Amino acid sequence: MQKPNAIEVSGLTKKFGDLTAVDNVSFNVSSDEFFGFLGPNGAGKTTLIRMLTTLLKPTSGRAVVSCCDVSEEPKKVRERIGVVPQAMTSDLDLTGFENMDLYGRFYSIPNRERKEKIKYLLDLVGLTARQNDLVATFSGGMRRRLEIARVLVHSPSILFLDEPTIGLDPQSRRVVWDFLEKFRKEDSMAIFLSTHYMEEAEALCDRVAIIDNGKIIALDSPNVLKSQLPGNDIISLTISDDSRLEEIQNAINSISFVHKVKPDGQTLRVYVDNGALNLTALLERVKEAGGVVTSVSIHELSLEDVFIHYTGKSIREEEAKKVNFFIGAGIPQKLGR
Amino acid sequence: MIKLFAVIERDIKKFRRNPVVVMMSLLMPIVYLIILGNSFQGKLKDLPFAVVDNDSGVYSGRLIDNLRAVEAGAKTFSLIFLTDQKAAVDGVRDGIYKAALIIPPDYTKRVKLKKQAEAGLFLDNTDTVSAANIRALVKSATGSIREEYVPIREKPGDSYIREIDLYSMVDYYQTLVPGVVIMSIFLGTMTAGVFNLVMDRFLGIDESYLLSPLSKTEIVSGLVISGLIITTIIAVFVFIASMLITGIPLTSGIEQGFSIFIIIVLTTLALLSLMFVILGRAGHPRIVGIFSGFLNVIFFFPSGAIYPIESFPGWLRAFAKINPEAYAVHALKSVLFKGAGLGVILSDLIFLIIFTNVMMVIAILTFKRNM
Ligand SMILES: Nc1ncnc2c1ncn2[C@@H]1O[C@H](COP(=O)(O)OP(=O)(O)O)[C@@H](O)[C@H]1O
Ligand SMILES: [Mg+2]
After folding, report:
1. Among the four residues A30, A184, A319, B4, which has the most C-beta atoms within 10 Å?
2. Residue range(s) defining the domain that contains residue B120
3. Cβ within 8 Å, pair A93-B13
């Protein structure tokens, strides 16, 4: 018999006044899947996670998490899940160990078992040496690792992580990824992770839902999502004289290894097979068409390109626009209350 | 239960780790005691008092001698002798003198003839405390020459007579102790209890509690109980310190101490649960800050801790009827100054218990378990 799904969501919607933060979302997550939610800031990731973790009431639709409907039996759901919210929630005035112990007691885990589990988890996240220091003295990365370890004390069957590496430097981010991978191999549980870093979704997730403006625009494994795009590499060419752009575009479109050309300002994004091998041939053709190339870059297709493909904009650009929101991670929601 | 203990332990740990908060909670009420004791009702000294003697007779001389005796002894006022009656009265009006006494030319003659002898006393009624003091002193000075004086040009109702001789400095200090203990409880309930919730909410830490299986009742009562423990310790300490400073003896020992402990515990619970109702949904610690100043005035001054409730107008008396601090002050005063047992203050205690229960129910019902 097939194991029941960890999460089943159908038609889930959340409105804040006129704004639809999560718009008629449906998906399932199986019981040992690493599921990613990828989208720019303001896409509705936090709102969705808050509905799934009983903190927000859905406007409409249904969500069954672990065992039960989140609206009908929130307490049962809370007992079975572990949630690391977007904002840091460890208590600065308590030590690392105390933070974990306090949490374990909320779940009524017996003394001995709790102590052992905390020891194991602190070791897993590499905080054993710092466990008796106040969290106020921790770095952002250490605090995050502590928070992830903390919600594992009661062995939840589903782990929710809302942008777990937001605000961390690249190195700390890598440490968190390694830890999640390692942990994943040892314990089987469903993990639901939201992020606006495509590398993060790509590196960790079995399946990724790409979300924009509250709607899921694509959902599959990173490889399948990428394979739906034409070609396997993108060569970006910046042309000095944009009056000839259309001519050049037509010239390279007819090459056999070129699948698609998308202009983006003075840059042409060329979807190709085997970019490294075909680069010289492509540049040759541009020259013939009278174009002067000022810069070239090749990259393998990524989820970023999938996002651009479906929305016509890049997550990075979205980030740049919303940089003010980003800095206050979690705060805009608070002000809205 | 294990969950509830976890919340309580957490709050107490956090409180202990903020030594500045602990020190302030202990010191502030004691500083209040010292400031109140010295600024409100210290003895008045050297009030400028103009005297115009138009009589220069035997009895006006005797009256002035009596005033000089006060000037030399208690030093409440210093006498300034003038000849110009108008200058004296204008001086009071301009605030140069606190009072002016005008003795008419026929004063001695009228006293001798056993007629009504009148001296005019002009008082600066804007300073009611000084005016009342001077009036009482002049009254006793004229009393001892067996003749009445009639104050003139004094608007009735603007001042009241205080029998100042009844209170010595130390006694006044002692009467402040119940108020100071209540003040320490109030401050304790502001830094513990609901404040932790508001602070955690502001820092975003509350999300992790809302995500845990803690129920509303566990969250609210955990915070109230930890607030109770912290505040009780502060209040008991402040009580003992103010006893030592003012020298009130505990006449009936253990029993009296126990009654005071019960009053402190019940008052703390009443205020903690009230704060939960008022501030349970506040999102910013600044709101607690603003409210704490406001609520302190609203509850403390109409509590009878400084002026008796009997002196309040009707509407304020009605408020005192539902003000938990008023019951606490009454109970503490009864136990401290009249040696009353638990039986006498039972109605105060019952009010505090009912009040706490009602507030707790409202606090739990209105507490928001989600975001
Ligand atoms: N409590 C709230 N009140 C009003 N609007 C909100 C509230 N919470 C979120 N929003 C809005 O809903 C949208 C989605 O927000 P959020 O779920 O936080 O996005 P993400 O986590 O993907 O960055 C945003 O436009 C945000 O401003
Ligand atoms: Mg978010």
Report:
1. B4
2. 47-165
3. yes
